[in-house]
């Protein structure tokens, strides 16, 4: 059996769990990031469960980092696969050095993924530990130890793929096991995936944000609220005490379901910025090329959608800004030149400001242009555009990044730059002390 990617694997794992263990509805789903996060997000959505992470790092054999000789995790968890250590002839000092490196990265990831939030309380609850697969089982064993130490009453380990006999090998690490596939001749987890690209930090954050912060469950503005705008459906997320709202202008090449947009939105939520994600093009309109590249049409739709969205009670009175990518950036700049337009700030990611060249001198809104260093043609368009803008502006180049910012760390840089720009330019005191009822 082959999974298309981790999302597909998560959906198949969710279906198997609902069929074979329906009593797990209401369990806490705990993902092993990075790769387990997109799998666990699908499982949590299907089970209607809370989603959290358990940060674990594999300790790889020197020179063969893909071979686990142990694992370390949060709360000081530690697993040593002595059989692998002995077979590889790894001396204690080499293991200690590798462990120290992994603990340093573990601390960084735990701080990033939690964003200052405490883990979901597990005492007395059933916990479903999810990863994208099991090979040696060192990471999974460490995760199970952590959730047990946090008081879990029952621990179930579920993965899309594992080697035959994996449950027997792991023994009492968990109380229950489920794998969608246990292929004969198992060699590696990645062999069961057509797309097994490394999961990024941004994708982990997007998966967690999609599930919504655990402490916000039931609060006003919980993640996942859908609006209906004139342009079609929109996704609204309002954190507690929002300081402003950012509307994402999706033109060509991306949409409101784009993992890139959701990753940036997740970062904004941690800065208490509400987000509205919607599409400027209706289904099928992307094939009408004149619409794709018409900034007047797209800018008019953006302005209209903004007026509609700001009538929502959760957004009333908040300052707003626009985040535009590609032709969505041109739409934002075009709309910003209208006399009745009042965004507090604009961020353009890999944008096409050249399409709105005639209106750039009329744009006085503080505008941040973010471009990948390897996206040379777009970088030149943005350099020229900045010289034409009529107000405060900045150009930030993300070194080595291409047009889609798919390189490791690139999208995280975009998110940090965007959040900083909006926070800096949104007026203080307008919404920062509001309480939703």
TrEMBL record:
Residues 9-164 form the Phosphoribosyltransferase domain. This is Phosphoribosyltransferase. The keyword Transferase applies. It comes from the Bacteria. Keywords: Glycosyltransferase, Transferase. The lineage of its organism: Bacteria, Bacillati, Actinomycetota, Actinomycetes, Kitasatosporales. One of its GO terms (molecular function) is glycosyltransferase activity. The keyword Glycosyltransferase applies.
């Amino acid at each position: 059996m082959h999974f298309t990617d981790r999302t597909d694997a998560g959906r198949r794992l969710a279906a198997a769990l609902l069929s074979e263990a329906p009593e797990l509805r209401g369990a806490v789903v705990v993902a092993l990031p990075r790769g387990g996060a997109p799998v666990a997000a699908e499982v949590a959505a299907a089970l209607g469960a809370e989603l959290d992470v358990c940060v674990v790092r594999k300790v790889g054999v020197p020179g063969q980092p893909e071979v686990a000789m142990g694992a370390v995790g949060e709360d000081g968890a530690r697993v040593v696969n002595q059989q692998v250590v002995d077979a590889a002839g790894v001396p204690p000092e080499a293991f200690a050095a590798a462990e120290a490196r992994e603990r340093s990265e573990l601390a960084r990831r735990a701080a990033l993924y939690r964003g200052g939030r405490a883990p979901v309380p597990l005492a007395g609850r059933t916990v479903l530990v999810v990863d994208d697969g099991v090979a040696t089982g060192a990471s999974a064993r460490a995760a199970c130890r952590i959730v047990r130490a946090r008081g879990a009453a029952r621990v179930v380990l579920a993965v899309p793929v594992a080697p035959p006999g994996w449950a027997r090998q792991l023994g009492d690490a968990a109380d229950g096991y489920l794998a969608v596939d246990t292929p004969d001749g198992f060699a590696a987890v990645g062999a069961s995936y057509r797309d097994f690209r490394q999961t990024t930090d941004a994708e982990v954050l997007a998966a967690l944000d999609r599930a919504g912060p655990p402490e916000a469950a039931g609060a006003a503005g919980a993640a996942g609220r859908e609006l209906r705008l004139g342009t079609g459906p929109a996704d609204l997320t309002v954190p507690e005490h929002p300081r402003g709202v950012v509307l994402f202008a999706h033109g060509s090449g991306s949409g409101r379901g784009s993992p890139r947009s959701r990753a940036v939105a997740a970062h904004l939520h941690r800065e208490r910025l509400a987000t509205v994600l919607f599409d400027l093009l209706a289904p099928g309109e992307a094939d009408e090329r004149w619409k794709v590249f018409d900034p007047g049409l797209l800018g008019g739709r953006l302005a209209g959608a903004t007026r509609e969205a700001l009538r929502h009670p959760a957004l009333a009175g908040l300052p707003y800004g626009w985040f535009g990518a590609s032709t969505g950036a041109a739409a934002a700049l075009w709309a910003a030149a209208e006399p009745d337009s009042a965004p507090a700030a604009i961020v353009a990611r890999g944008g096409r400001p050249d399409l709105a060249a005639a209106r750039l001198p009329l744009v006085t809104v503080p505008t941040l242009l973010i471009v990948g260093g390897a996206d040379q043609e777009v970088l030149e368009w943005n350099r020229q555009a900045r010289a034409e803008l009529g107000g405060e502006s900045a150009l930030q180049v993300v070194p080595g990044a291409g047009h889609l910012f798919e390189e490791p760390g690139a999208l995280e840089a975009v998110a940090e730059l965007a959040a900083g720009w909006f926070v800096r330019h949104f007026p203080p005191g307008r919404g920062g002390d509001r309480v939703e009822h």
